[in-house]
Amino acid sequence: MTRSYKIALIKGDGIGPEIIEEAVKVLDAVSYAEGFELKYDEYLLGGAAIDATDDPAPKETLEGVKQADAVLFGAIGGEKWDNLPREKRPETGLLKLRKEMEVFANIRPVTVYNELVNASTLKPSVVQGVDLIVVRELIGGIYFGQPRGNDGNKAFNTMVYSKPEIERIARVAFDIAMKRSKRVCSVDKANVLDVSQLWRDTVEEIAKEYPEVTLTHMYVDNAAMQLIRDPKQFDVILTGNIFGDILSDEASMLSGSIGLLPSASIGEKFGLYEPIHGSAPDIAGQGIANPIATIASAAMMLRYALNEEVAAGRIEQAIKQTLSEGYRTQDLSSYDAKEVCSTSEIGSIIANYAASK
Ligand code: NAD
């Protein structure tokens, strides 16, 4: 029987609809070539949902996504909704969706494409060949810990992790490492923080379940420095919420363009796949957005949610081929461009390469 999957599509605002359209084009090409079927259901979130329903995260969306095998998401937000009260704003809708889906692991790969080594602000010799993944705990730690407060004179937050929370995120990192070069670097601040000591001890315990994986530990201040000094030393970086927030943004800049980087947020039951950038209202509707981050997110969806590794690899290879042939969207037009393409043109080129072996 044909393998068949249900995908919830959330296009969102700004460039969201344009980049999701290209990801669907590529998914359709690769699923046809690999002999499986994808069925799409569309849901509203963010500004588009506010306009249609007066709610940034309508019940239909929060319930509908749970019926799907995975969610592919564009981006939300824009000036039009910036002055609404906080609970009505597009960003609130996205936070609600993540919470509802209980996606506790944020996975951000950073790949520096050979053809774009000059796009980074770092020297090509430093970034060439970088291929790492940051695995960040997303729904715990200091951003959510209780008690928290601010009386105008004194303010405090609590950095807290339970052992099960550390165990489950550690397993995600080790599972990913098993599919790569079997190295995990766990980042903490165990020389100062009790919570980091529990983190380190627990990660050590989980490592025993993965005897083939080499585990190292690094303090977060050193990790921030090493990411710039010699990023190639890293494969999988495992870390908590606040450290991961900062390090994953730092790591994303190794590649030089925000339009290239995908992400996945996964939980026990659900997965949300999205580019790391926002809705780019400044270029929306002009056909110049770079869809590669979204197309690469679709590849992650095939790999992590649907276990369609071959199809995921085809898409990643197609992106590399497109870039090495010199096809560029406008954001990358100064870096060895042979031809500057529209959003739709580059989507079609990637789809064609992905469909042919
Ligand atoms: P942004 O990421 O949307 O844009 C930053 C800059 O990068 C802009 O100049 C934009 O044109 C450019 N850019 C972004 N993606 C691009 C792409 N694919 N191709 C070419 N250029 C691209 O960040 P911002 O301007 O700070 O935010 C715009 C809106 O997006 C805001 O409403 C913000 O709240 C929202 N936002 C949403 C998400 C999300 O949906 N996950 C994330 C971040 C920001």
UniProtKB/TrEMBL annotation:
Chain coiled-coil ranges: none
SUPFAM superfamilies per UniProt: Isocitrate/Isopropylmalate dehydrogenase-like
Known catalytic reactions: (2R,3S)-3-isopropylmalate + NAD(+) = 4-methyl-2-oxopentanoate + CO2 + NADH
Superkingdom of this protein's organism: Bacteria
PROSITE patterns: IDH_IMDH
Gene Ontology molecular function terms on file: 3-isopropylmalate dehydrogenase activity; magnesium ion binding; NAD binding
Pathway(s): Amino-acid biosynthesis; L-leucine biosynthesis; L-leucine from 3-methyl-2-oxobutanoate: step 3/4
Co-factor binding details: Binds 1 Mg(2+) or Mn(2+) ion per subunit.
Residues reported in the UniProt entry to bind Mg(2+): 221, 245, 249
Binding residues annotated for NAD(+), in chain numbering: 78-91, 278-290
SMART domains: Iso_dh
Top-tier EC class: oxidoreductase
Protein's recorded name: 3-isopropylmalate dehydrogenase
Natural source organism: Hydrogenimonas thermophila
